[in-house]
Amino acid sequence: MEKAVVLKIESSYSLLNLNTLGIDAEAEFFAQASSVDEVRDCLAFAVANQLLVKVLGGGSNIVMASHVKGLVLNYSNTALQVVNETTADVTVKVGAGYNWHEFVLFCLSRGWFGLENLSYIPGTVGAAPVQNIGAYGVEVKDFISAVHGIRLSDGEPFMMVGESCGFAYRESCFKQELDGKVLITEVEFSLSKKPCVQVGYAPLDKMAKEKGLPTPIELSNWVVQVRKSKLPDPVDMPNAGSFFKNPVVSTEQFQELIKRFPGMPNYPQNSGVKLPAGWLIDNLGMKGQSFGLVQIHALQALVLINNGGSSEDVLAAASMIKNSVQKAYEVQLEQEPRMFF
């Protein structure tokens, strides 16, 4: 068994094609595991060599250091099984390595609904609960019934129900107290067999008014169409998707801002008012602006394009953008992609 593990683990491994920002990174050691037993073998290798284990998913929502120390572990299992099914709903357990968009399309093909607004989000199923991915008024937390994984400290399995995962806007316990401590192996989703499309967010609302209420599959196609029109393909323009979270300000601060910027889009929340970060940047005329090797996308102000820069270059550009927004609106932007060092 030890010999097999050595063959799986590679040293000085290029991560250039494993992060969508296109940072020319290198892992001290790298392994791709497709089963729980292989994960445990890799953990044993890490212990024997005194290496930290760093879990890497699809690499679509991270800023990666040029050199990543330790053992970078990628889990590739894509097994899918129905856990429970009734005439009204279904619970399905999915391997963390399953491509997220392909999973959404599979669900739609089976008549399992709820995830259509989350179509075309890059990454894997295992990354979905970490980031609590969301789009167009829908968050994945509302469909996650359980998360399964392995503790990196001892290789023991764990299971957490959705309610205990600390989900919040682009947040979870997997980004906070469990960051770097667990590897997610499977996620369970509870989905409805009754269509209930969500079109409250522009431009979906506009399309619904023009074309009528869509079916779930039509809505998925709309979302893909909109995302393709706004978000560049990382293959052509290396990027990490939306680089900043939409900030939530107090109602009092919003009242002051709307006086100064009457056209500012806004979305009332229980805790205040959510503002589109992209609009805040765009309103400053920063679309297309370059910061050395890093550029704000010409069509979507939330996206940073990396033209061969390092993580330092990306973070420097992000800092300048945040400073500009802070100065103009007294609003602090928060970075969405996680750091991977």
Percent of residues in helices comes to 25-40%
Specify the overall morphology.
globular
* Ends distance: 30 Å
> What is the total domain count?
3
- The overall pLDDT average reads 95
- CATH C-level class of the largest domain is Alpha Beta
The secondary structure category is alpha+beta
CATH topology of the largest domain: Uridine Diphospho-n-acetylenolpyruvylglucosamine Reductase, domain 3
The description of the largest β-sheet is: 5 strands, antiparallel
Number of helical elements: 9
Q: What does this molecule look like?
A:
This protein has 341 residues and is α+β, with helices and mostly antiparallel strands. It is 27% helix and 26% strand. The protein folds into 3 domains: 74 residues, Uridine Diphospho-n-acetylenolpyruvylglucosamine Reductase, domain 2 (2-Layer Sandwich); 113 residues, Uridine Diphospho-n-acetylenolpyruvylglucosamine Reductase, domain 3 (2-Layer Sandwich), CATH 3.30.465.10; 93 residues, UDP-N-acetylenolpyruvoylglucosamine reductase, C-terminal domain (Uridine Diphospho-n-acetylenolpyruvylglucosamine Reductase, domain 1, Alpha-Beta Complex), CATH 3.90.78. The strands form 6 sheets. Strands 6-7-12-10-11 form a 5-stranded antiparallel beta sheet, with no helix packed on it. Strand 8 and strand 9 form a beta hairpin. The longest helix has 19 residues.
